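During the first year of the project, the team set up a workflow for recording each protein of interest as an amino acid sequence followed immediately by a discrete structure-token representation. This format lets reviewers and collaborators read both layers of information side by side without switching files. As required by the reporting guidelines, we include two representative entries from the current panel. The first entry is reproduced here exactly as it appears in our internal archive.
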Amino acid sequence: MINLDNAIISKCIVHKVGNSYASEQSVFSNLEMDLEQHELLEIQKIFTKNFKSPLKANRFMHPIDLNQNVMYKLVEDMFESDQNYLRNTKNIVKYLFEQSTHYSIKSGEIFIMNFEDVVHQDVLSNAIGIFKIENSTNFIKSDYHQNSISVFLDKGIVGRNIEKGCIVFNSDQHDGYIVYSYEKNNSDTNYWNKNFLSIVKREDSFNTTSALLETYRDFVMNDISAESMSKKEKIEMITKSIEFVGEQEESLSVEEFIQTTLVDKGAQEQYKTYLDNYKEAYEVEMEDTLVVSKDAVKYQQKKFKKVIKLDKNFHIYVHTNDDLMETGIDELGRKYYKLYFDQEL
């Protein structure tokens, strides 16, 4: 999907966006970052870490005219010429500031980067990245002076500090470009994806395959009663549905998928209604026969369930992405997992 290993950052600038609700003003830089290429390479690794795994492609949209999408026009101008680069980056931050109208939205640094030689769908492309940093991380630094070592605490950015980001590829311009978006906190989706970027999912094989498997998973887990089927049985059904799609060579009949994975006739009709409601609510086009994306199947397998076996003592069943997990080593050299959750069910 996306390969940034040999990508080059040709331009990079950082501004700070405030919160209009809290009357926090934005701060603008007038100079691009002047760093050595090896330093830019390290920055690139940090900021693009969350764009390595398969992601759903999006596009800019507007209900009336695509040219009225603010971000689309700003990115278009940046791709076409460097003449207004500084002004455009400032306008991006100003527009994000206008969307920061809720008390919970934090201020933060906005890094805007131009990438060259990014491999996307096996083709070299240029791209623009926009990343928001809302929090920094404490870390220990050491300094050597002859026969002494000074140690002090500092703050900085690591990959997990990137709360929001997007990469826009310079292709399919007239269809709203190809946009990949990342959010650490999905509760801010309206703020970032809808209000700021104004993006919708692209109608490609990855998205349609993912939509079919995700709606099936949600239907089985939420709409089939616990009295008629245990959670273990539901997990087995979902696992088999992913395997079934993965076994298809190129295309898949949605009707065959439903009849094969749902034996009960009533459940079949319920799921068809569920799928129709999903397509209408999210404005998703889905043909009766889909082109199967193997990347989407692999992504869903990883996303749905991963079993982590720790020695012979523990099995951890993970049903979400790895953003809610951290690993480390304590002072005794023992490895550990740290899990984040809102409530115990």
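The second entry, processed by the same pipeline in the following quarter, appears below.
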Amino acid sequence: MKRFIILGGGYGGITIAQTLLEGHIPDDVIVMLIDRMPFQGLKTEYYALVAGTVADYDLRVQYPADPRLVLKHGEVTDVDLDARLIHMAGEDPISYDWLAIALGCTDRYHGIPGAQEHSTSLQTFSAARQTYRLLGDVKPYGQVTIVGGGLSGVEVAAELREARRDLNIQILDRGESILSAFPGKLQRYVSSWLHEHEVRTVGGVSVSRLERGVVYNRDERLDTDVTVWTAGIQPVPIVQRIDLPKDSQGRLIIDSQHRLPAHPEVFVVANSAPFPFSPRAQAAGAQGKQIAEILAAEWYDRSPRLSRIKLKGVLGSLGKKAGFGLMGRTAIMGRVPRVLKSGVLWRSKHHSG
């Protein structure tokens, strides 16, 4: 028997598995999905979990129940590409014939002293739960500081404002404006919403270090009860340790079929590889479909049928009643993008039932 292992059950990994299950898997191939959790966490909605406006249970999606898919749960500690082995904590190594690395990302702290030790994260379900606990324990009129004014930082701030009207909330960003990757029209709309809801935004910040209860903007001391870090991502440590060509952000270089050139039996998804698309969840799903098609073509000795990847756009929420988005080059603001985002979440939760 040959074995195809999918490392990571997030948007990319689950799409690979679901797409393969929709087709025919050869009788001599075992498909195995390995993840530390017994369910998929809807990572794009973790901002609501940390704010306490959505329950943990509501952001879980069960993995497909299919006899052709072997589910294994545990902590992957290393990948040996030369020996084609997956190492797991407390277990014997698992061999593979094909591998998809879809392990997501972790926070990038940019070498800032104390950043990892004195801030809290959204990057895993466990980290989001911990952040929820810390934010929930902030006393009335306490200070919450969000480092990073991108999509995640804005969504956390807005959702937290709806959950806790008593808190002082500020977003610190190194750019002059939040949401620097978005058009000026959207930046102004979101900035206005945050201002109206008494969320302070501070641009041109250079975070120099963190201490317990303190963020330093160069030498300026900013006292805080909780600091939420949303200031960049990088590949997980397992990918960081792989000694193969990478881009400037530490992501593994892949070919046009999402394979490692030195190990064509290995596919790499989204945050672990440079991919010219955003948002990442959609991009991972699009890659996942292509990887499943490429594998099926290899198994049945035919040419893969690949269409050009086109993403639908990006949507952001400002609490439960307002939002913003970019559909192609068209900016949308207000109630409509929030309703659209709710529909996307519904489909994500019910797609794999």
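For the second entry, the following points were noted during internal review. The chain has two domains: 2-36+74-106+233-310, 113-231. The helical segments are 11-21, 46-51, 125-136, 151-163, 184-196, 237-241, 280-299, 335-350. Both points are flagged for discussion at the upcoming steering committee meeting.
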